[in-house]
Amino acid sequence: MKTQIRKGQTMFFGDSTFPHGISRSGHFNKRESDELALYGKTFEALHNGKLLPENEEEVQFVASMQKLDESHLYSVNLWKKYLAAVEKSRVHHGFSMSNGKTRDASGNELAFS
């Protein structure tokens, strides 16, 4: 990726959401996962406001992240794709076995007629 955005001081792995790594998540191709590893810490810090932009491209990144529409910056689209993948991974569909009994706060079974 040809960019003026600084590389992160450490590699970004998305550990909390993708415990096996971004490259194994199935959401990103090789190029995207490599670029997220290099620039992800900077993207995250700029997006969260923990890092101030130092150049014009970083200023555009911060401004574009606040808009809902698609950006012309590849870095913004990549980071939005990462955020969408994080949201998608948080949605869990589960079915649990239930005996149909409900309990109150103290653990006593409530009977319904």
Brief summary:
InterPro entries: DUF413. Pfam families: DUF413. With 113 residues, this protein is mainly alpha-helical.
Report what the structure shows.
There is one protein chain. By secondary structure, this protein is mainly alpha-helical. It has a domain at 22-90. The chain has helices at residues 30-48, 56-65, 74-90; strands spanning 102-103, 109-110. It has a two-stranded antiparallel ribbon. The longest helix has 19 residues, at 30-48.
Poorly predicted runs are none
Strand content: under 5%
Measured between the Cα atoms of the first and last residue, the distance is 65 Å
Shape: elongated
Order of helical and strand elements: HHHEE
Please state how the strands of the largest beta sheet are arranged side by side. 1-2
Beta strands, count = 2
Q: What structural category do the secondary elements indicate?
A: mainly alpha
Task: Tell me, rounded to a whole number, the average pLDDT.
Answer: 84
Number of helices: 3
Largest sheet data = 2 strands, antiparallel
Helix percentage range = 40-55%
Nearest-angstrom radius of gyration?
20 Å
